[in-house]
Write a structure and sequence with these properties.
It is a single chain. The protein is mainly alpha-helical and 79 residues long. It is 65% helix and 0% strand. The chain is built from two helices and no strands. The two termini are 30 Å apart.
Length: 79
Amino acid sequence: MAKQGEELFEESSQGSVSVVTAVVFIFSFVLAMGGIVLATYGFNPALGLSKELAIFAGGLVLSTIGFVLPFAVLPKLGK
């Protein structure tokens, strides 16, 4: 229940999103989604087993970095 005498939508005391936070989130989104797409290209029998595994592993690494970046880097930066 809303408190009496306070605004329903009051301004945040933390301010707006910084440029660093926005850039890191966009970069991490691109890495995560690009890694997933790259991992799907690893399922191509015409490439051969070693290339398939390398492409899939590269996509998995990119996705992992993309998902870890905003949760590990941003708190250390204080953003």
